[in-house]
Design goal:
Length: 802
């Protein structure tokens, strides 16, 4: 202790002073440490440098025949500290204050600083591996071993590093390193650790159970069935479980000791030998085996690994479990696999098409499988199929997994749809129960869980919390499809937006057709607007076409509301669904009785949530804005309302892209704006054809000699005349014996198409003026064409009468 202090500089005072913690070492010497946790450590930025993994260290000793073990003397204390930092490391002892000149034990970041230093110093030296204050040197023969030692000593001499000769051993056939016995054959368990397990007493509480399992799990890579054997002991460590040492616990305790004592050897990792990774999954766990393939064709294990599945993972489909086992195995043995080609072995054939390097990712693969495939794309591997009976190692491990929270890999996939569907009238719990009963989804669910062949569709489906997912969409059973359609239609967003929402959340066969039918369902939305300029307005909106009806009301009672609805129903018919808020007019018994008598389903929005009746609320705002803008113009409120409704019904809607009139009436209404457009014949004919009227293009020219229909003569039906002018598209002005008459095209025939016996003979005794006067005052023929009938004049046959 005195020698350690004398190497430091004593001072009378210091801004920093850390208490010392002397530690007695195994050889009786003292290691001087300081408790910097209460002084300097909270104020330091800790340097980051990764410590070597055990797998990496053991792999670096591959191929060694003999081994040398060296120990750095006082490790950290060999590193000098910059003068500006020395005063910060001042220690407070019974001899006074001392400024430390070298890196002290207890300083946060000291291990990383030392490891970074020795890694850089001995980097690139074959057969040399340094971990903290221990160095291991080996070689494939004596010459290479001597060469490595010589180079190592040279580096130490150049940088002033000292070694502890008493702890060093040279050219040993086997050495103990980091709790393992290492020789030329591979890794072994040490006798000291085995003895600690074998001689361990029966645990008396949960703390002792955890200590025993921690000691056993250190050698988990040597044991193929450790997790299942230790399952009764693992159950004792769970929360809210009473400690009770049962017969099963005692049996497990003895079996674990027996398994640890088994003489199993793991071979050294050799980068020159082919590498295989076999994985498998069972309903309870996943397992994997990393092996080397030797020239004689035999496979020898490098390491075993397994773990149990979490509660949510146990509900995965079989293909998802198999894929999870592959991804977990690759992550577990990342250091061995990254940057080199290896063979991946699975007993689930559909995964070859998804993870195989010769094909791209399937377009319709489930999200979780796509996520796993993207992870595996960073590795170089060949995936092959091996039957289960030939896949014993990994299959056995998956069915006998090791439970360890440290080894459990959480799935990064979070299905947002499953949390969202809880807010629907159908919860995921109800959907999970009905999925197994559904005639379509039930067999599919069982096939996915059992890993059956689905003719290439396995990758499209996955299981999440007992529900089937199609990509990112939840598959809905038949029982709840109507509920989901009603929820989609509740916002009255139109077919396009309903489909867009559905394609993000839900799926079933022919869902698009069902959405189209649901969107066409006649439903109207009700609400009141006002008061606006001392008036209240009752709004009725057709959800499909956005057609708007507005009724000014002095009082908003249930009786007046029903009167307005009766008026609307008489003109447009009864809707199937009517949506309103929770106003007293709509929740009264009288209104509910009116709805029931007319067979209308009444739905109300959520209380105190006007936005849930958003469509009506939006039109209330539009009406208020328009009427306020028109307030400065002349006219009554009814005139302004009529102007607003005409313009609104004429204008195309943003959602439907068509005007409300076109969707509601199947035609656009005519406004004064239409007066600006010329009345072209082609437009009229197109309109007639759209209205399903058969119109034959019968055309006459000015000056044509035609026969005109006569309605007043008793014995004649036609008169001849000459066309003087054309009045519109379907009417003509005709000069008939000096009298101008107006006739529709259906009342005109060509001169050759009428028999002379049907033509009237002029009666000169009557005044032509009188005839002209009577003809010109005849009622006008309506513009709309009459239904077309045959123009043939029927003449009954002459019969013999006896």
């Amino acid at each position: 202790m005195r020698n350690r202090l004398n190497k430091n500089r004593k001072v009378d005072s210091s801004e920093w002073a850390t208490p010392v913690v002397p530690v007695v070492k195994s050889d009786g010497s003292i290691r001087l440490c300081a408790d910097y946790s209460v002084t300097l450590n909270p104020n330091l930025i800790v340097p980051q440098h990764p410590l070597p993994r055990l797998d990496e260290i053991f792999g670096s000793l591959n191929g060694g025949k003999q081994f040398t073990k060296l120990d750095f003397k006082h490790a950290y204390l060999q590193m000098k500290v910059h003068p500006d930092s020395q005063k910060l490391m001042t220690i407070n002892t019974h001899k006074g204050l001392y400024i430390c000149k070298r890196l002290m034990y207890g300083l946060n970041g000291a291990p990383a600083i030392w490891q970074r230093y020795v890694d850089g110093l001995f980097q690139g030296m074959d057969g040399v591996k340094v971990f903290m204050d221990d160095a291991r040197i080996t070689g494939s023969d004596e010459i290479s071993h001597f060469t490595a030692l010589e180079e190592f000593f040279k580096k130490c001499r150049e940088h002033g590093l000292k070694l502890n000769l008493n702890k060093s051993k040279f050219f040993q056939n086997e050495i103990n390193f980091l709790g393992h016995r290492i020789d030329s054959k591979g890794l072994h368990k040490t006798d000291e650790k085995i003895s600690a397990v074998v001689n361990a007493p029966v645990p008396r509480n949960v703390h002792e159970v955890k200590s025993f399992l921690g000691l056993v799990n250190f050698y988990g890579k040597f044991c193929e069935n450790l997790a299942t054997i230790a399952n009764p002991l693992n159950n004792l460590t769970r929360k809210n479980v009473r400690f009770l040492w049962s017969k099963d616990c005692q049996v497990a305790f003895e079996q674990i000791k027996k398994e640890i004592c088994s003489p199993k050897i793991l071979v050294h990792y050799d980068p020159s030998l082919p590498l295989t990774l076999a994985s498998d999954a069972s309903p309870v766990g996943i397992g994997c085996v990393l092996s080397h393939v030797y020239p004689d064709g035999s496979e020898r294990p490098i390491a075993f690994a397994s773990r149990t599945l979490s509660g949510s993972e146990k509900k995965y489909s079989q293909i998802d479990k198999e894929a999870l086992s592959i991804v977990w195995a690759v992550r577990k043995f990342y250091l061995y696999l990254k940057g080199r080609r290896f063979t991946l072995i699975t007993d689930h054939k559909p995964l070859i098409a998804i993870f195989g390097s010769k094909r791209g990712l399937p377009v319709l693969a489930a999200t979780r499988l796509l996520h796993y495939a993207l992870i595996l794309q960073s590795f170089e591997f060949d995936i092959i199929f091996r039957k289960t009976i030939e896949h014993g190692n990994a299959d056995f491990l998956s069915r006998l997994p090791k439970t360890s929270e440290e080894l459990e890999v959480k799935d990064d996939i979070t299905i947002f749809q499953m949390s969202q569907i809880e807010a629907l009238p159908v919860t995921s719990k109800e959907l999970r129960q009905e999925t197994s009963k559904d005639i379509e989804l039930g067999p599919l669910l069982r096939a996915l869980r059992e890993g059956k062949d689905l003719q290439g569709r396995e990758a499209q489906y996955t299981i999440e919390d007992g529900c089937i997912m199609y990509g990112q969409r939840v598959c809905i059973s038949r029982k709840f499809r109507k509920n989901v359609l009603e929820e989609l239609h509740a916002g009255h967003l139109g077919i396009v937006k309903m489909k867009a929402i559905a394609r993000s959340f839900v799926y079933w066969k022919n869902i698009d057709n069902d959405i189209e039918e649901a969107a066409k369902t006649v439903s109207i939305v009700l609400d009141f607007a006002g008061p606006i300029f001392e008036h209240t307005f009752f709004l009725i909106v057709d959800a499909h076409s956005k057609w708007l009806e507005v009724y000014p009301m002095k009082v908003t009672t249930t009786k007046k509301t029903i009167e307005c609805l009766r008026n609307s129903f008489a003109r447009f018919g009864l809707p199937r669904v009517l949506v309103s808020d929770n106003g007293s007019q709509f929740t009264s018994y009288e209104f509910q009785r009116f709805m029931h008598k007319n067979g209308v389903r009444h739905k109300t929005s959520a209380p105190f949530k006007p936005s849930s009746n958003g469509q009506a609320e939006r039109y209330v705002a539009t009406l208020k804005q328009s009427l306020r803008a028109m307030h400065k113009y002349e006219g009554t409120i009814q005139q302004k309302l009529s102007t607003f409704l005409m313009q609104y019904r004429k204008a195309p809607n943003v959602t439907t892209t068509l005007s409300p009139a076109m969707l509601f009436l199947k035609r656009d209404i005519r406004t004064r704006i239409d007066l600006l457009l010329p009345e072209l014949k082609t437009k009229i004919q197109d309109k007639l054809r759209r209205d399903n009227f058969e119109f034959r293009d019968r055309k006459f020219d000015v000056g044509d000699r035609v026969a005109v229909r006569v309605y007043r003569a008793a014995n004649t039906r036609w008169k001849f005349g000459t066309i003087v002018n054309q009045d519109g598209v379907l009417h003509y002005i005709i000069d008939v014996q000096g009298t101008l008459v107006r006739r529709h095209v259906d009342q005109i025939r060509s001169e050759q198409g009428v028999s002379s016996t049907d033509v009237a003979v002029p009666d000169l005794s009557q005044s032509s003026a009188k005839e002209t006067d009577s003809e010109t005052r005849s009622p006008p023929v309506p513009d709309r064409p009459f239904p077309r009938r045959s123009g043939r004049i029927r003449r009954p046959p002459e019969r013999l009468v006896l």
